[in-house]
Amino acid sequence: MRDTKESRLLLVLLIAIAFALITVDIRGGRNSPVDGARQAAAAVFGPIENGMSTVVDPVGNAVSAVRDSGARHDRLARLETQNAALKAKLGSSDRNRSRLAQLDKMLNIAAEGQYGIKGAQVIGIGAAQGFSWTVTIDVGANDGIKRDMTVLNGSGLVGRVTTVGPDASTVLLANDPDFTVGTRMEGSDELGFASGQGDRPLRVELLNGQAEVKKGDRLVTFGSQGDRPFVPGVPVGTVTGIDPSNGGLTRTLYVTPFVSFTKLDIVGVVVEAPKKDPRDEVLPAKPKPTPIPTVTVTVTPSADASASAGASDTSSPQR
User: C-alpha angle 165/167/170, rounded to 5°?
Assistant: First the structure.
């Protein structure tokens, strides 16, 4: 295209329309007027991303073995069998060993929390549908995925499903500024709401402004009515910062998530909630404190000092 006054005007007009659509989409939330177009985009581009991932990913079929493994809680034994088969199929490369470790951790969380999950792979990242922190996964409506399902991995809460196509879905990550989840503190059961802050720790507002909190305390999801968008008991993160309590109605904490949102690969969509709240059972075991060694110093007189003391005794005047 030639660089003319008309082409420049057209470019400016297109940019203005794009910004207007993004603004309308964000303000509209669930009832966004462009939601239909976003779903159409997911339906068109999702299979393309999925196909590309299948071509370049040597373990795509292995993860699909887990995909249908969580329909019911009483099928956890089958998960273990399939996991053993995955170990033989994935081989011994460094990448595959890493992915196998991710699968193992995710299956352990599913078993401990009694979550029915469908395994998935991250096949795309970015803000293609108006969000700043999203990923595309290779499961969709044909796999039983629905909007507002919880997404986790072997470390904890990843996010929630926001858009579903036939064979791919979009996941809003927990660190997105538009993301909010109810939380419960381990042990004390103090409730709050965690919000994403991009590449900074999550911001948590505790409902009790006088709650006793210390660094190192851990949080899990409180759960939603009907278990959507969030099931209870999924690990969220660890308290790393606390604002001073000024007598307000709430108290602000800063929580480092268990999940690394820049290293997502293998995830699971919770398609069946646990029959009872797992409470803190899914949290990893707390590390044992390293004992501080006690050093005892014993002073032993040297040979020279002993000799000097003996000489001093013999030279003393006798009475």
Answer: 50
pLDDT at 252 exceeding the cut of 60: yes
Q: How far apart are CA 121 and CA 138, in angstroms?
A: 6
The per-residue pLDDT for 286 is 80
Average pLDDT over residues 154-176: 96
| 3-state SS, one letter per residue, for 131-183 | CCCEEEECCCHHHCCCCCCEEECCCCEEEEEEEECCCCEEEEECCCCCCEEEE
Least Cα distance to 214 among 240, 188, 249, 237 occurs for: 240
Q: What number of other Cβ atoms are within 10 A of residue 171's Cβ?
A: 26
Measured in Å, how far apart are the chain's first and last C-alpha atoms?
122
- Answer with the residue of higher pLDDT: 85 or 103: 103
Q: Is the model's pLDDT at 260 over the cut of 80? A: yes
Q: Which residues in the chain belong to E strands, given as ranges?
A: 116-125, 134-137, 150-152, 157-164, 169-173, 180-185, 191-197, 200-206, 218-221, 235-242, 251-257, 266-272
Amino acid residing at 70: G
Closest CA to 185 of 238, 230, 252: 238
Q: Higher model confidence: residue 135 or residue 26? A: 135
**pLDDT, position 118:** 95
Neighbours of 187 (CB within 10 A): 9
Exposure string over 229-251, b if 16+ CB within 10 A, otherwise e:
bbbbbbbbbbbeebeebeeeebb
Please tell me which of 24-28, 58-62, 235-239 the model is most confident about, judged by mean pLDDT.
235-239
Query: 198-224: string of b/e by CB count within 10 Å (b at 16+)?
Result: eeebbbbbbebeebebeeebbbbbbbb
In the structure, what pLDDT confidence band is assigned to residue 25 with cuts at 50, 70 and 90?
A: low
Peptide bond before residue 289 is cis, with ω within 30 degrees of 0: no
- Contact (CB, 8 A) for 233 and 82: no
